[in-house]
Amino acid sequence: MVSLLLCFAQTCIAEVESRRSTDILVFGVVPQQAASTLAKAWGPLLAAVSQNAKLDLRFATAPDIPTFESRLARGEYDIAYMNPYHYAQFHQSQGYQALVKEKDKKLKGIIVVAKDGPYHTLDALAGKTIAFPAPGAFAASMIPRANLKQRNIDFTAKFVGSHDSVYLAVSQGLFEAGGGVGRTFNNLPVEIKSKLRILWTTPKYTPHAIAVHPRVSASTRKILTAELEALSASPQGQALLDTLGFSAFKAAQNSDWDDVRALKLGELSIPLKEGN
């Protein structure tokens, strides 16, 4: 009898371990690029975390931002890499809880004007038309528009599809000003960049979150957080982070995104579901 009970207990333990090692968690990634590009970049990192955590992380994305948002709203992703606005929104509506954010990373936008133009303060843009890449481009569009609104500076927003289109249009005098980010501005061809200047740089905000749906257990959350933080501790893990343009992950808490909530992005008059 004792041996039978021992065998039964060992079998149960083996079954639990087997199930734990094959738990499937759908990992959704905001579609900032083509699905094939994202899968190629994220796949190796998810495979490494899966192996170390004894979980099965399955990459997923969506064809566009509105679809990604709809899937978050239905709780289809167990884990998701989402922009700061999405996190603030879907933490409130679906209970997604942040695990990690990128270490030593803050998001900020810029507003550019013609180099020889008459605009030298934000107030000077009152009543003007400002170009932005897309309504939902967080750093290049949402942050600048929210800050202008908070300052009671009235303006007309025009969405031109990309950062490069913003810079080109402003350099050609089609718009008085435009929103972007430092990285894309610095990468401009000299013939365009030389015609522009940065009028204003926004405050810095908490970056994207990796967050889990509330159905994911506390023990799994703890394991995932530890494994994501540990990536930067080894050359192999750092190489995986480098592929995605990340330096390292650090544990995060919900209040880290209070700065984003203070922007009151939901009050912007332009729909927020057309960009990334």
Give a topology summary.
Blueprint: H1 2-21, E1 24-29, H2 35-53, E2 56-60, H3 65-73, E3 79-82, H4 84-94, E4 97-102, E5 110-114, E6 129-132, H5 138-150, E7 156-159, H6 163-171, E8 177-180, H7 182-186, H8 190-193, E9 196-201, E10 209-212, H9 218-230, H10 235-244, E11 249-251, H11 258-261
Helix pairs in contact: 2-10
What does this structure look like?
This protein is an alpha/beta fold and 276 residues long. It is built from eleven helices and eleven strands. The chain has a six-stranded mixed β-sheet with strand order 2-1-3-10-4-11. It is elongated and about 60 Å long. Residues 1-21 and 270-276 have low confidence and may be disordered.
